[in-house]
Amino acid sequence: MHPSQSELLQLKNLGLASVNILHSVGIRSRDDLHRVGPVEAFISIRSRGINASRVLLYALQGALLDVHWNDLDPDLKARLASEADRQLSASRAR
């Protein structure tokens, strides 16, 4: 399926560029994103050398919750960022 026909485009916060990136790491549906989770998806993206900002991390969480990323609770954003930073640091240390 071409990314422009992906069900991911129906999710809040995700445009064609984000969907292309998700497809590049094997996430092709909402179920895939839910199963992997936003932090692991973000880590996979960054591990491929794609320079994604925290906004993408928040957008992925918001997509699962059907909430604009900017409306996520600040504590949730902090927890997501902390977990992503922890995992990225651990992967660099290996």
UniProtKB/TrEMBL annotation:
An example Pfam family from this entry, by short name, is: TfoX_C
Residues in the signal sequence: none
UniProt cross-references to Gene3D superfamilies, sorted A to Z: 5' to 3' exonuclease, C-terminal subdomain (1.10.150.20)
The TfoX C-terminal domain covers which part of the protein?
A: 5-83
| Name of the molecule in the record | TfoX C-terminal domain-containing protein
